[in-house]
Design goal:
Strand order of the largest sheet: 3-2-1-4-5-6-7
Structural class: alpha/beta
CATH class of the largest domain: Alpha Beta
Largest sheet: 7 strands, parallel
Order of helices and strands: EHEHEHEHEHEHHHE
Bound molecules: nicotinamide-adenine-dinucleotide
CATH architecture of the largest domain: 3-Layer(aba) Sandwich
Radius of gyration: 18 Å
Number of strands: 7
Helix content: 40-55%
CATH superfamily of the largest domain: NAD(P)-binding Rossmann-like Domain
Strand content: 5-15%
Distance between the termini: 42 Å
Length: about 260
C-alpha cells in the first residue's frame, strides 16, 4: 500500500485506535507523528512501529503549551500537515451527582479541548499544503448512552458539533473534517472498561464477549477495522465526505436492544 506516500500525519493516542491508525498511515507511506501522555504506552508504540516512519512524543493533549510545542516541532521540520487524527481520550464514570468539577474539567480537556487545540495549531500548516483531512474519534456514546458516563458522553457529543462547525468553515481551504463513532473495539480502553464491569473475580474475556453479543454483528470490532475507516476518510476516495459522523458499531445503535 502506498496510498499515503509523502503525506504528513499527526495522530494523538499511542495505543489502541490511535496506534492502529498511525501504523496504517505509515504502512501506506506517510510520515507519522504520534502524541501520547503515558511513557510506557509511548515506549510500546515505538516498539510496535519499529521499521516504520513513526515518531512518538510525550504530549499532554489537554495542554495548550504541549500541543503548541508538539505541532511546532513537527512543522518546523516538515513542510506542512496533511492528516490529523484525534484518538487520545480517557473514559471515566460518574453521573451528575458524583462527577465533581475536577473530573469534569479533566475529561473535557483530554477528550474535547484536545481536538480543538490540535486542529487550531495544525490548521495553518494544512492550509499552506493546499488542504487536508481531520478525523476526530468520537463514540456511540455521543449518540446514545449507558448509565454513568456524564462527562465522557458530553465530550463525544461535543465532538459531533465541533466536527460540523469546523467542516463548514474549513471547506473553503480544502480541509475536510469528520468524526467516527465506534461501538466496542478491542483496545486497552475496552479492556479497562471490561475490568470495571467484570470486577475482581469476573472474567474479562467473558465480559468482552457479552459486549460483543450486544452488537447485532455478534462481536466487538477490531483496531484494523477502525483504522480502515479512518484511512478511507483521510484518502482522496473520501473527497466529498465532510462534516459527518461515521458509525463503526456492528449495528449497535441501529437496533432497539430488545
Ligand atoms: N475502544 C472502544 O471500544 C471505543 C469505543 C468508542 C470510542 N472509543 C474512542 O476511541 C479513542 C481511542 O481509544 P482506544 O480505545 O484506542 O483507547 P486507548 O486507551 O488505547 O487510547 C487512548 C490513548 O489516549 C492517551 N491519552 C490519554 N490521556 C491523554 C493525554 N492527556 N494526552 C495525551 N494522550 C492521552 C492514552 O495514553 C492512550 O494512548 C478514544 O477517543 C475513545 O473514546 C473507543
Amino acid at each position: 500500500m502506498s496510498d499515503f506516500d509523502g503525506k504528513i500525519a499527526l495522530v494523538t493516542g499511542t495505543s489502541g485506535i490511535g496506534l492502529g491508525a498511525a501504523i496504517r498511515f505509515a504502512r501506506g507511506g506517510a510520515r507519522v507523528f504520534c502524541a501520547g501522555i503515558d511513557p510506557a504506552l509511548n515506549e510500546q508504540a515505538e516498539t510496535d512501529c519499529a521499521g516504520l516512519d513513526v515518531t512518538v512524543s510525550r504530549v499532554d493533549v489537554s495542554s495548550e503549551d504541549d500541543v503548541a510545542r508538539w505541532v511546532g516541532e513537527v512543522t518546523s521540520a516538515q513542510n506542512g500537515v496533511d492528516i490529523l487524527v484525534n484518538a487520545a481520550a480517557v473514559q471515566t464514570y460518574g453521573d451528575t451527582a458524583s462527577t465533581d468539577i475536577g473530573h469534569w474539567n479533566r475529561v473535557i480537556g483530554v477528550n474535547l479541548t484536545s481536538c480543538y487545540l490540535t486542529s487550531h495549531f495544525a490548521y495553518p500548516h494544512m492550509k499552506r499544503r493546499g488542504g487536508g483531512s481531520i478525523v476526530h474519534v468520537s463514540s456511540v456514546q455521543g449518540h446514545q448512552n449507558q448509565n454513568g458516563v456524564l462527562a465522557y458522553a458530553t465530550t463525544k457529543g461535543g465532538i459531533h458539533a465541533l466536527t460540523r462547525a469546523q467542516a463548514v468553515d474549513a471547506a473553503r481551504d480544502n480541509i475536510r473534517v469528520n468524526s467516527i463513532s465506534p461501538g466496542s473495539i478491542r483496545t486497552p480502553l475496552l479492556e479497562f472498561a471490561a475490568r470495571q464491569v467484570a470486577g475482581e473475580d469476573g472474567s474479562i474475556e467473558d465480559t468482552i464477549k457479552s459486549f460483543g453479543a450486544a452488537h447485532p454483528i455478534g462481536r466487538v470490532g477490531t483496531i484494523e477495522e477502525t483504522s480502515a475507516l479512518i484511512a478511507f476518510l483521510c484518502s482522496d476516495a473520501a473527497a466529498f465526505c465532510t462534516g459527518a459522523d461515521y458509525k463503526i458499531d456492528g449495528g449497535l445503535t441501529a437496533g432497539l436492544g430488545v
